[in-house]
């Protein structure tokens, strides 16, 4: 039973190599590299000390949450993408970097998604979700006003929309690659992901509600101000411990994820032919299929998940430290030049 569940951990919207044409893959590599490079520059300008450990923690929690598929009607499953949540908590640019770490690690270590199409996967699930989620969230807040219920409601709508947009972009890439006709892939993909987006919205709203009620000081200052008088600063050690604890619990629960196919896999099965998710032919992937070679059953998935959590938190935390150091060096150079 556990082996069946383990093999069912196919993550939504991860495109395998061979589904997209080389021109489409190359185009989205260029767009992704440009977007991530710009995100590094913008994060360097806006990064505060609170975000440094939080980038690692957010990457770990999103990675672990993506291992937990939840059932959807019609024999389909879905899971958190996390781009909107990362953008709300960290800001859209830092959110792009966190999602890039997660999606890249999934492809390189776990063979989840192809290498040739990794640019498209990062763009769809990282760049697009963080940028659109952050933009929609802030626009809605300006309309609704900064009330607690407005924060939660805006996060639900923003998160739902990111899933639909990501599914639409994936569909357009498949159409441009002549993999499927638009008349079939667009309604199939968008329809099932409109349902999956409800789960994304509920999880995002629940996570934001939890943070507002317990640790509003983790959230951006303008959000924490809504809960004025109830927040106190957290140390870096406590932020890392708090986040890693939650990510570890989610990794322990990963063998019990829904065994139903995810949205993209279900859509491709419905349309006939093609596959998504795990890339059996990928030249890399030390922990294929989210398992530890030589270790069987659910324990293998749990250990693989914990390894992934530790690596991705190091990637996120390390990236933030490097950006902060680079900013300090730049400011020191400008100070010397000015003086």
Question: In order across it, which strands form the biggest sheet?
Answer: 1-2
What is the succession of H and E elements?
A: HHHEEHHHHHHHHH
Main beta-sheet annotation: 2 strands, antiparallel
- Secondary-structure class: mainly alpha
Which regions contain 5 or more consecutive residues with pLDDT less than 50? 1-11
How helical, in percent, are the residues?
55-70%
* Terminal-residue CA separation: 69 Å
Mean pLDDT: 80
Which of globular, elongated, flat, extended, rod-shaped describes the shape? globular
Strand percent estimate: under 5%
Radius of gyration: 19 Å
Question: How many β strands by DSSP?
Answer: 2
Tally of individual helices: 12
Q: What do these coordinates show?
A:
This protein is mostly helical and 339 residues long. It has twelve helices and two strands. The chain has helices at 2-7, 22-46, 51-65, 83-90, 92-110, 118-144, 148-176, 182-214, 221-224, 236-252, 263-271, 297-338; strands at 70-72, 76-78. The protein has a two-stranded antiparallel ribbon with strand order 1-2. A hairpin with a 3-residue loop joins β1 (70-72) and β2 (76-78). α2 (22-46) crosses α12. The chain is globular, with a radius of gyration of 19 Å. The model is unreliable at 1-11 (pLDDT under 50).
Compose a concise summary of this entry.
With 339 residues, the protein is mostly helical. It has helices spanning 2-7, 22-46, 51-65, 83-90, 92-110, 118-144, 148-176, 182-214, 221-224, 236-252, 263-271, 297-338, and strands spanning 70-72, 76-78. The protein is built from twelve helices and two strands.
């Amino acid at each position: 039973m556990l082996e069946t569940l383990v093999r069912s951990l196919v993550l939504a919207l991860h495109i395998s190599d061979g589904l997209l044409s080389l021109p489409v893959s190359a185009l989205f590599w260029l767009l992704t590299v440009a977007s991530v490079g710009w995100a590094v520059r913008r994060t360097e300008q806006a990064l505060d000390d609170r975000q440094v450990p939080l980038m690692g923690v957010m990457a770990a929690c999103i990675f672990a949450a993506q291992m937990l598929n939840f059932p959807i009607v019609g024999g389909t499953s879905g899971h958190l993408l996390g781009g909107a949540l990362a953008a709300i908590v960290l800001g859209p640019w830092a959110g792009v970097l966190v999602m890039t770490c997660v999606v890249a690690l999934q492809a390189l270590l776990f063979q989840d998604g192809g290498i040739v199409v990794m640019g498209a996967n990062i763009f769809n699930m990282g760049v697009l979700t963080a940028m659109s989620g952050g933009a929609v969230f802030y626009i809605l807040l300006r309309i609704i006003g900064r009330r607690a219920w407005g924060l939660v409601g805006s996060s639900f709508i923003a998160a739902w929309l990111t899933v639909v947009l990501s599914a639409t972009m994936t569909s357009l890439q498949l159409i441009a690659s002549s993999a499927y006709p638009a008349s079939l892939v667009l309604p199939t993909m968008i329809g099932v992901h409109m349902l999956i987006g409800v789960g994304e919205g509920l999880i995002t709203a629940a996570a934001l509600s939890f943070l507002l009620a317990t640790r509003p000081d983790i959230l951006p200052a303008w959000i924490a101000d809504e809960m004025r008088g109830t927040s106190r600063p957290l140390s870096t050690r406590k932020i890392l411990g708090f986040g890693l604890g939650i990510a570890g619990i989610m990794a322990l629960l990963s063998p019990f994820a829904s065994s139903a196919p995810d949205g993209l896999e279900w859509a491709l099965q419905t349309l006939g032919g093609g596959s998504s998710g795990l890339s059996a032919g990928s030249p890399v992937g030390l922990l294929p299929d989210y398992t530890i070679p030589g270790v069987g059953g659910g324990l293998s998935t749990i250990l693989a998940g914990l390894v992934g959590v530790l690596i991705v938190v190091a990637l996120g935390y390390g990236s933030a430290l490097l950006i902060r150091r680079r900013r300090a060096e730049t400011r020191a150079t400008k100070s010397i030049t000015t003086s």
